[in-house]
Amino acid sequence: MKKNLSILFALIGWFAVISQLYLALQNRATPIPEALVRFFSYFTILTNTLVASYFTAQTTTNDKISFFKRKGSLSAITVYILVVGIVYQVALRSIWNPEGLQKITDELLHTVIPILTLVYWYLYEKKNQLTWQLVPAWLTYPVVYLVYIMIRGHFSGFYPYPFVNVAEIGYGQTVINSLGVLLLFVVLSSGMILIKRIF
């Protein structure tokens, strides 16, 4: 059952990411190299790619070749993709109205895949291995991502999300928004540990 779900979820994940890449290239307003850099500057894309890679890795039985089979990796990935879903529903859904393939892809990336990942976490995470010491390591990815988009945005003028667009809202509001999102990571990560302790 676990392997079958991994295969199914991996296929859904890769379909969503590849479809979004196709749409991004088809509708690009910049040269292909820049369009690709911008595509992979979205936390949504990076995280859904991470999720699809994780599920793909679960289809092999070789524990030695997979970073994703380390202690707590599923919980970390679940936190990342839940943040993708929550931030989209709260802050981004209302600012555009996709249609056709874009709407399908949008729902997969921001709603369906976060839910599927949470279900998979509930079913298969080894919750007795989760400790508070893992939480700081889980925050490395979003912090490094934030630093990257701030540096690149400073030089390129491109910020992937309006709530971190320094050019429009300034550094003060960007810092406040970023701390709010980081707090969400901390709350969700802590929730993973607390659920383990409760159940």
Can you give keywords for this protein?
8 helices, globular, 0% strand, 199 residues, mainly alpha, 74% helix
In round numbers, the mean pLDDT is: 92
**Radius of gyration over alpha carbons?**
17 Å
β-sheet strand percentage? under 5%
Number of helices: 8
User: What is the CA-CA span between the terminal residues?
Assistant: 23 Å
User: How many extended strands?
Assistant: 0
Kindly state the percentage of residues in helix. over 70%
Query: Would you list the SSEs in sequence order as H and E?
Result: HHHHHHHH
Basic shape: globular
Structural class: mainly alpha
Spans of 5+ residues with little confidence (pLDDT < 50)? none
The profile of the biggest β sheet is: none
Brief characterization of the structure:
The protein has 199 residues and is an all-alpha fold. The chain has helices at residues 2-26, 32-39, 43-57, 73-92, 100-124, 135-138, 140-156, 166-198. The model has no long low-confidence stretch (mean pLDDT 92).
